[in-house]
Amino acid sequence: MKNKEIEKILVKFVESGWDLIAVPSRKYLDGTGDLDELREAVRQADAECGSCGCLFDELYKKALVLLENE
Fold it and tell me: Which of 3, 42, 45, 62 pairs with 53 at a CA distance of 20 to 30 A?
């Protein structure tokens, strides 16, 4: 993984405990995950919860931008 910023965001996703983003984030950090699967999970999380007002709202959007460059 080239980008330390996306790594930090993915660690936060893992720590969230929300399987939707935690599982694909953990796999990607471990080097066993699929980038497209991770992107789709983050897109889905953003669609379901991306405007609730929590700290993750901005992280979903930032992660998607950074993942486009992975």
Answer: 3
